[in-house]
Amino acid sequence: MLGGGSFTLFRFRGIKVTVDWSWFIVLFLVILYMTNFFEDLLGESGSGPFLLALLSAVGFFGSILLHEFGHAVVAMRNGIGISSIQLWIFGGMARMDREADSPGTELRVALAGPAVTAAIVVFLVALGTAASGWTGFREAALLETRSDVSGLMALIAWLATINLLVLVFNMLPAYPMDGGRVARALAWYRSGNRNSATRFAANLGRVFGYLFIAGGIALAFSGRVFTGVWLALIGMVINGSARGAAMQTALTDRIGDVRVADVMDREPVTIPGDLSVEQALDEYFLRYRWPWFPVVDAGRRFLGLIERDRADEVPEISRASSHVADYVDHDIGLFVRDDTPLDSLLANQNLRRLGALMAVDAEGRLSGVITIEQVGRALRDATAR
Q1: pTM of this prediction?
Q2: DSSP symbols for 292-359
């Protein structure tokens, strides 16, 4: 990403949806472009074209968000946690807490987003055709500024067209785009080796990245400066991501089959969920001076994390009668399975933010804590070997 801060919009099914500051650049450009278009189409200026442009931007980014939720839902159904979905200048990104464990899972997760986008296109085309007939919808989709094309129909047609373009572009076999992940899944299925499949897909992604950069430069010199610069920037992002994937694969080869359970701390300090907040502050936070603790129930099932700031927010008069379990953070991105390959944590954002992740077994019981120092030590040992 370009860097900078982000903030949370909302949470849905435990998934945090955030936006990066760069997202507002695209939001502004979409609204500006569509306002000018609707002014030309309707032959007027003012609130009408601006409102239609605003609806266009909401529909466009809503479609991207649904695309990413498609990835997220299928990933969660296959046991892969989703820490967040982030909107930024080049679209959206679902952050998974680990890689897929089979080519079939990789393929299903990769195709889930495009399937949602395809469904959106079909729905919009059907809606537009039912409202104005195929000829009227086709004219609106071609963005012809005809007096008999209503603003609402042009809005529907534009959303259908832009989603179709996103679908086609995203299915190009340029890793880490969805098409590149499909290519990796197929190569993985054929070779039986995830690392070699990732190298193949990453190299393919770098080829497409250079093609996009070259095409962008050509478009810029032909007079289409904005489109050319945008395509070149996309090529640079794809090339950088593919290069990073190739480098991570090299580290993965060195780590081998090391799992979280092989390096984690198997005796973490935990707080019982039925303990009062007052006792937690006195017996744990004041004693150990740690910013957070894992919370478990009587069967040692992991309930979430309790942070010092969250405990301090409880009014003093209520602390003795309040239980820790009522104030834990249940974010699914806070824990991983203890049989997770260690290499899948290399890009984990929560590991970097907290400095550690909770490790649970197949039944959800807390089995340990994996720290960023332990991951780094394993990497150093692997590099030394």
Answers
A1: 0.74
A2: EEEEE-TT-BEEEEEEHHHHHTS-HHHHTT-BGGGG-B--GGGEEETTSBGGGGTT-HHHHHHSEEEE
